[in-house]
Amino acid sequence: MAESLEYGRISFEFAEEVDRLSDPDEVANSTRRTMTIFGLQLFGFFARVPSPGERLENIGLAKQTPEMAEWLKIYDDGRFAEIDPIARRLRHSVVPFEHDEVPYGSNPRAAELRQRRRDFGFASGLSVPIFGPTGSTGYVSYAIFKGLKPDLPAHKRTFHLMTLYAADRICSLRSAGSAHKPIVTNRQREVLTWVAAGKSAWEIGEILNISARTVEEHAQQILQRLGAVNRTQAVAIAIRDRLIAI
Which CATH architecture group holds 186-240? Predict the structure, then answer.
């Protein structure tokens, strides 16, 4: 009982602190400090579950710590989003879940990812799905690092409430600070500029020295990021928001 009251006090104090902060990275740092109390060492806020070929480092909602940035590079360079059982679970889950609950099956690439996580120092972790007003699914993942093993089941509800509160604050601050401008990478901006010029996927690939398939992948990611139904609408949104100039 006393322990529950203590964690309740921590939650309320965390919410009050987050309300006073005016920068997404400050909210992330506050979340990181508070979750350390529970034994959760690393974490990241992400705008959505990555699509095949999409890099997690491009869809983070707040600045990563050096350790998490290092892990994201390993994850992205290995293209593990394509086969990650945790990412697959996130697409169909509405409640937090422990990473130990997720079966990796017999896929050799999934087994490689699990070993990479262990080698990096992740003992386990917790992921929290976050649903936006349009139904889009973002998420927050916490990593239990360096062999620590907190009591996740006992505190899962606390993690959930605090995470949702922090994520809502980060999204609100980002929306206000960016004047609702979506994020696109430099490469996606190049592709979109050539789409606006009327170039085909093959022509854009030749210009940028990438394959037409890669161009198509970038184009699909652009539609998702801009909330557009087709490339014409994507170009119009990008011009409106000054993401490209023609």
Answer: Orthogonal Bundle (1.10)
Q: Which tokens is 149 given?
A: 């093993």
Question: Measured between alpha carbons, how far is residue 85 from residues 101, 104, 124 in Å?
Answer: 10, 6, 14
Question: Helix %, strand %, coil % for the chain, to 5?
Answer: 60, 10, 30
**Token pair of 153 as six digits:** 């089941």
DSSP 158-193: HHHHHHHHHHHHHHHHHHHHTTTPPP--HHHHHHHH
Query: Of 111-120, 129-138, 141-150, which range is least confident?
Result: 129-138
What is the per-residue pLDDT across 150-198, written as a single tens digit (0 to 9) for each? 666 677 778 888 888 898 888 878 776 554 555 788 899 899 999 988 8
Neighbours of 128 (CB within 10 A): 25
Is CATH 3.30.450.80 correct for 2-177? yes
